[in-house]
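explain this:

___
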Amino acid sequence: TFALVVSWVTYSADYSRYLPLDSSRRRVALASAGGSTASLVGCGLLGAAIQTADPGRLLPNLIVASVPVAFAYCFAAFIILAELSSNYLNVYSAAMCALAIGIEGQAVDGRHRRRGPGRPDRGPGPLRRQRLPGQLRQLPHPHLRLVPGLG
């Protein structure tokens, strides 16, 4: 679980660009670490409490045995959505890392509209390939003046 938290560092760094300029680095780091720690400890304690209820049985069996069968579909949907959302964030973080270190990519407008029967209109097409500084110039953000060469 620690590796998962560390893998999202770039994702949280993307949000931190919206903080006020006078934000304390220490308070931001403590808030981030505190949130991660609280959720990890809370889930760990819950898992330990469930397992100690009947140590002879496996944890999934304890959970399934304690709820009605109808909830199985809700749990399955929740697990699928949780996996999709966490993997989406990992892919986003990887893309931010790639842009930050200068790996070029190509952004594509994913909207598909149809004009007439069976003729898709794919919109404006691929966006121009740029390195990170060129993309940063396009962002309407007040902190960009702090980046040397961009302001």
User: Anything to note?
Assistant: The two ends are 39 Å apart (CA to CA). The chain is about 60% helix and 5% strand.
